Automatic annotation (TrEMBL):
Residues 417-517 form the Beta-glucuronidase C-terminal domain. Pfam families: Glyco_hydro_79C. The keyword Signal applies. Gene3D superfamilies: Glycosidases, Golgi alpha-mannosidase II. PANTHER family: BETA-GLUCURONIDASE, BETA-GLUCURONIDASE C-TERMINAL DOMAIN-CONTAINING PROTEIN. Keywords: Signal. This is Beta-glucuronidase C-terminal domain-containing protein. SUPFAM superfamilies: (Trans)glycosidases.
């Protein structure tokens, strides 16, 4: 009798077992992972709503500082994007004056069309966490070299101020123009604007901007190149094409040390469950990143670094019910961890006040991010589900400053795994089950992961397991990480930490729509 019951129970919970080999030492190709792998790109029209104007925005600061406490370095911050090419400088302007188009249901928080900034605007960089590395964009789109020069001069002064310098906040890069490959479509240039003309424009601007910003062969600050919206290999706008057009051979072009490209997985202005499972897929994540493989190879062949300077899920600032959900957190985690496996050093997730795909909402909102309808009550600053991906990535990388990671072969189209090493030893692993369990799914299934430690050394006997618990993939709140929440008024973690300590021989049961961090003792 007893035996029968056990057998039935076993049948009901039958799960797929995945045998995963984990090398005890890093494979030779395992890339180093920067502590600021998951960084942020901020739409610059409302920059002071992020960082603070006359005093620090403590909520934003806390959300960045949480990451610094885990990985040892704060995320890098790139400020610019669409509004970068609509910004002019006026020494009389206090912070920023911006003109916004009216909100629409698909774009409840549109970018400003005309921004005027003064010195006080750039000086607010001092409110960032100490040690933050910054990239700032100047205007190429409006073809007004005076505007770009005045901005660059003001940026230089801000980063030379003692408030910024004493905090160890440094300007790594100046970017000249955002997504110039789209200028021919968005009216910023003629509809025949091509990569040769762009390269000439960039060199002309960069001559003056380098002088104004103090960028030289010996300065810390350098140029971030390209910042293209997409990749069209060959004759279109691509790193290869600007190299062929001679950008690196020019005097200011020799000051480009990193190439940036941008990526969104698609353009959907309304969400659906199908769309969520599309996003939560190893295949589509790898497909969206490996499109850059030839570009990365060409960039690295020139001895330059390569980053995704702006990225997120879907355009229209995110698809409602998809980009703002717990499922998007799992997408973010796999996307960020996969990027360095193909030579992308850092991934800047794009954020704007009220955008649906934000990790962080640092300002009080009064209209819905999903359809612009007025909210019944003002919504105070808060984190969104994707923020947990930043936390998990930072925790997996850890604060060693010398972490390497390798993707693990997991024989399942929806389960991704990564191992993390410090020096020569295996320290941690992350597994992500991307099968979408939504509010309309019938059953939540799971997989069992059997760990098979390989390549010599003695296998760890015990591990602690920390879980990202998600009610449903389409939930927009209520996630917990090791039993704790970041959905607090301060953005600081709250609640009692809860982890399991188990034998590595027992493997691990991973539910649909769940991520775990294993720490090996
Ligand atoms: C942008 O705003 C500034 C300051 O308010 C104004 O002087 C300028 O004319 C505006 N530009 C455009 C193109 O509207
Ligand atoms: C750009 O640099 C050139 C050469 O030094 C100078 O003549 C010109 O005035 C500068 N333009 C601006 C807008 O600063
Ligand atoms: C270019 O920018 C400068 C500096 O703000 C401004 O004085 C000038 O009017 C602008 N030129 C045009 C054509 O908009
Ligand atoms: C871009 O256009 C210019 C001017 O029409 C032309 O000389 C140049 O060859 C074009 N470059 C490319 C890559 O098509
Ligand atoms: C990018 O991801 C989307 C789903 O988010 C998918 O529909 C699309 O096919 C992917 N693109 C590539 C090139 O893999
Ligand atoms: C859900 O689980 C129940 C009980 O195990 C089973 O009878 C049913 O067929 C499952 N439904 C689906 C859609 O898998
Ligand atoms: C572990 O992997 C090795 C190498 O593929 C294989 O020979 C062995 O059977 C695996 N061990 C277990 C317990 O699955």
């Amino acid at each position: 009798m007893h035996t029968t019951v056990l057998a039935l129970t076993a049948l009901a919970v039958t799960v797929v077992a995945l045998n995963v080999q984990i090398p005890l030492a890093p494979p030779s190709g395992a890339p180093s992972i920067t502590p600021s792998l998951l960084s942020f790109s901020i739409e610059q029209d409302r920059w002071t709503d992020w960082v603070g104007s006359t005093s620090r925005n403590q909520f934003f600061f806390n959300t960045l500082d949480n990451l610094k406490q885990l990985s040892g370095s704060p995320p890098q911050i790139r400020i610019g994007a669409n509004s970068e090419d609509h910004t002019n400088f006026n020494s009389g302007a206090v912070f920023a004056q911006a003109v916004f188009p009216p909100p629409t249901a698909t774009v409840p928080y549109p970018e400003a069309t005309n921004i005027t900034v003064g010195d006080t605007y750039y000086e607010t960089a001092r409110f960032l966490p100490p040690g933050t590395h910054v990239t700032w964009g100047v205007n190429l789109g409006q073809n007004n070299i005076t505007a770009a020069v005045l901005e660059a001069q003001s940026i230089r002064n801000a980063f030379a101020s003692s408030a910024v310098k004493d905090a160890g906040i440094v300007l790594d890069f100046v970017e000249i123009g955002n997504e110039p490959d789209l200028y021919r479509n968005n009216g910023l240039r003629s509809n025949t604007y091509n990569v040769t003309q762009y390269t000439q424009d960039w060199i002309r601007f960069a001559k003056n901007v380098s002088v104004a910003a103090g960028i030289t062969t010996s300065s810390h600050t350098k140029f971030l190149g390209a910042s293209f919206a997409g990749s069209s290999h060959g004759a279109g706008f691509s790193p290869q094409a600007i190299f062929a057009a001679g950008i690196l051979d020019s005097q200011p072009g020799s000051l480009i040390t990193t190439i940036s490209q941008h990526r969104y997985s698609g353009s959907f202005c309304t969400g659906s469950e199908g769309l969520l499972q599309d996003l939560m897929s190893k295949d589509t994540i790898r497909g969206n990143l490996t499109v850059f493989a030839p570009d990365i190879q060409a960039v690295r062949a020139k001895g330059l670094d390569y980053v995704l300077g702006e990225t997120n899920s879907y355009s229209c600032h995110g698809a409602p019910g998809v980009s703002n959900t717990a499922g998007a957190a799992l997408w973010t985690l796999d996307y960020a961890l996969f990027a360095p496996q193909i030579g992308i050093s850092r991934v800047f997730f794009h954020e704007g006040i009220g955008f649906k795909y934000n990790l962080i909402q640092p300002a009080t909102l009064t209209r819905s991010t999903l359809d612009a309808s007025p909210l019944p009550a003002p919504l105070p600053p808060h984190i969104q589900p994707q923020y947990y991906a930043a936390i998990i990535a930072a925790e997996a990388i850890g604060s060693s400053g010398a972490t390497r990671a390798t993707e693990l072969v997991v024989n399942d189209a929806l389960v991704a795994g990564y191992a993390f090493y410090e020096g020569n030893s295996l320290k941690r692993a992350v597994f992500i089950n991307e099968k979408a369990f939504t509010r309309s799914s019938a059953n939540r299934t799971s997989v069992t992961i059997d760990l098979n430690f390989t390549s010599g050394g003695s296998a760890p006997r015990l591990m602690t397991v920390k879980r990202l618990q998600i009610g449903h993939a389409d939930d927009t709140a209520g996630l917990t990480w090791g039993g704790q929440t970041y959905e607090t008024d301060s953005g600081r973690v709250s609640g009692r930490l809860s982890v399991e300590t188990t034998s590595t021989r027992d493997g691990l049961v991973l539910q649909d729509t769940e991520a775990v961090l294993m720490t090996f003792n």
